[in-house]
Specification:
single chain, 11 strands, globular
């Protein structure tokens, strides 16, 4: 069973940047895809970006494409989300999660395909 801990959130002005980290333990990290999600108050949790187990496949939600970059360091059991050009509408709690399928070749956007949800990290973007 995987355990995930997110960090790196905070308060930033619009146009600023943050780098989120997600440290994994408890399962072979480098055999599973990873995803980043967020949930704003009163809204459903939404998929933002995902990366396959080997990094060959990456997918972004349209609203963050070109601004956010997902990456992984399998040697450190960590996945990152670099967020640039942040907007007030990016304010939310950000979560990482691990794909439940072993060595899935593609990136799944379905929340139900992920497990190991951490406590999340708050990102607040002021205007």
């Amino acid at each position: 069973q995987v355990q995930l801990v997110e960090s790196g959130g905070g308060l930033v002005q619009a146009g600023g940047s943050l780098r989120l980290s997600c440290a994994a333990s408890g399962r072979t990290f480098d055999r599973y895809g990873m995803g980043w999600f967020r949930q704003a108050p009163g809204k459903e949790r939404e998929f933002l970006a995902g990366i396959s187990w080997n990094g060959d496949s990456i997918y972004y939600k349209d609203s963050v494409k070109g601004r956010f970059t997902i990456s992984r360091d399998n040697a450190k059991n960590t996945v990152y989300l670099q967020m640039n050009s942040l907007k007030p509408e990016d304010t939310a709690i950000y979560y990482c999660a691990a794909d439940v399928w072993y060595r899935r070749a593609t990136v799944t956007q379905r929340t139900q395909d992920y497990a190991g949800w951490g406590q999340g990290t708050q990102v607040t973007v002021s205007s």
